[in-house]
Amino acid sequence: MKATGIVRRIDDLGRVVIPKEIRRTMRIREGEPLEIYTTAENEVIFKKYSPLGEIVTIAAGYAEVIQKVTGVPAIVCDRDHVVAVSGLPKKELLERRISSSLDDMLNQRKTYVKTNEEKNLNPIEGTGYYALICQSVIVDGDVVGAIMLVSEDPDAQLEENQVKLTEVCTMLMVRQLSEN
Predict the structure, then answer these.
(1) In whole angstroms, what is the distance from residue 71 CA to residue 159 CA?
(2) Nearest-10 Cα torsion for 129, 135, 136, 137
(3) CA 42 – CA 65 distance, rounded (Å)
């Protein structure tokens, strides 16, 4: 844990303001849920809450099924990081941060499908992978992440059945998260 040098006081209602610089760096948006932890050393820790983080095993299952059926590498991410990978090196991608381009797409609640007219989307920071499809996972009106098929080839194209399978898996994941 590193100190920021910023000190804030608790107001009479028990609130603490998280400075804008920290919210921007950590990609904490207005209304975003935070989990609160305490330690034996009397520390209070705020951690971004991710519904997908609770079902990592299930997300890995979805990625594996999509990859096996389509033959294309699949990735599941929450609003910040990759949580599941199939068809690519897990060590290289798990917990890697999503790109600002993908973050912008998720903020707009869009689905990205690679076409000849569409600009390439590099969904994961510091990698050479391009999204073929990126389907937003929206639960109770909130975007919680995405399911995507990726390729190292910037000119790769999707088949219609690959798009449909990704859409179906996204709907199933949304349903599963809605029930939790």
Answers:
(1) 11
(2) -110
(3) 44
**CA distance to 10, 29, 180, per residue, from 37 (Å):** 17, 19, 21
The pLDDT, as a whole number, for residue 150 is 95
| CB 60, CB 70: distance < 8 Å | no
CA–CA distances in Å: residue 73 to residues 50, 69, 76, 80, 129: 23, 10, 11, 19, 10
Q: Residues with Cβ < 8 Å from 54, sequence gap 6 or more?
A: 180
Q: What are phi and psi of 112, to 5 degrees?
A: -105, 130
Sign of CA dihedral 79, 83, 84, 88: positive
Q: What integer pLDDT is reported at residue 77 of this predicted model?
A: 93
Average pLDDT over residues 71-95: 92
Report residue 126 as tokens. 């510091």
Distance CA 173, CA 22 (A): 31
